[in-house]
Automatic annotation (TrEMBL):
It comes from Litchfieldella rifensis. The chain crosses the membrane at residues 25-45, 66-89. It comes from the Bacteria. Residues 127-154, 163-172 have a biased composition (Basic and acidic residues). This is FxsA family protein. Keywords: Membrane, Transmembrane, Transmembrane helix. InterPro entries: FxsA (IPR007313). The keyword Membrane applies. Residues 122-172 are annotated as: Disordered.
Amino acid sequence: MPFLLLFTLFALLDFTVLFMVGSQIGLLTTLLLVLATGFIGLHLVRREGVATLQRAQQRFAQGELPSGELLTGAALIFGGALLMAPGFLSDALGFMCLIPNARRLLGKLLISANVRIQGFRYRHGQRTQDPRNDQQDPRDPTSRARQDTRREDDNGQPLEGDFISKDEPRQR
């Protein structure tokens, strides 16, 4: 509910600013500015998206999980969507999501605001488990031990879709 209220207030404020600026500079100039920010945003999304994809592929090739690149990709999608919406506040926030240094600053602001993402709470650079979510922290060795237990059917065979390592002895 708070997110819906915040979203509605942001949209109303964005349109109010758009109409106020439009009444001062004229309709045609306002439309040209809205279209220009859309095209500039499209160019930035493509450029940053390609660079992020290349970094993610390099990390995959090194055998690492590209978690930072995934978050960057999410920020690029969010920023691109904001730039497609008409309004100057949404454009400003969209550009913050697209420009690397501004994106880092925005991320730090979200972390300092103790933002919850997918059941985990990020607080001053620490990731802690949110008690409202049943997911386990993957860095916690006890939760990994519980996740590593193999499920079997009544005959002792692994359930369909379960992974069996090549090094693991196969039970018959």
